[in-house]
């Protein structure tokens, strides 16, 4: 099988899963943006994916993302930055990112806002909210208790558009249970931010559970591209 055929198969299977999950949740699959996470995989795969109708791709490391976005310019792709951000790289991410999903602390607001101002186009951002339990050491995102304060900081930035929330289900819990908390966090959040309706949740292993609680963006890597090398 050629690489193009492999990717077409993976993509077809994921699109079918999305359609079934939407039907089960009484939703329209048009509501879901599939962000294909291409980290670790070469720009040649990104080009094949674009040829298969993929419009949105996700990356989690600045250097890799920047190089691939440059190598794939002209394909009309939207690049989603979904990984941990260092504040000294944050402004540079805005040169290619259509959306940043992983804004998780106030320190990133200034550099992202500056980068967006320089590029002359507002940057849609999502707040990554932690679904980790109270005992978790290293949180994956902002503590839900600090969400309001971070949202206010973003609202105060002229060139950022607070567009919604992002979350990753913790490894030590059933995704459906974690995403149920996300649903509650989000319904409280949108009362204050009625325009911030993006919900980025769901990966290869748990996209159905995310669609059931209202995800609008699923971030899927290995189910489309195959397993990533375990190094790095
Ligand atoms: C790698 C990654 C994904 C995709 O994970 P898969 O399990 O390969 O679908 C989604 N979200 C984030 C934040 C990631 O880093």
Side-by-side strand order of the widest sheet = 7-6-5-4-3-2-1-8
N-to-C span: 28 Å
Task: Give the radius of gyration.
Answer: 17 Å
- Biggest sheet descriptor: 8 strands, parallel
Mean pLDDT across all amino acids: 96
Q: What ions, cofactors and ligands are bound? A: pyridoxal-5'-phosphate
Find the count of extended strands (DSSP E, 2+ residues): 8
Low-confidence sequence ranges: none
Classify the helix fraction into a percent range: 40-55%
Order of helices and strands: HEHEHEHEHEHEHEHEH
Task: Tell me what portion of residues adopts beta-strand conformation.
Answer: 15-25%
Count of DSSP-assigned helices:
9
Q: Give the class from helix and strand content and strand pairing.
A: alpha/beta
The rough form would be described as: globular
Description:
The chain has 232 residues and is an alpha/beta fold. 42% of the residues lie in helices and 17% in strands. The chain has nine helices and eight strands. Strands 7-6-5-4-3-2-1-8 form an eight-stranded parallel beta sheet. Bound molecules: pyridoxal-5'-phosphate. The site of pyridoxal-5'-phosphate has 14 residues, from strand 8 and helix 9.
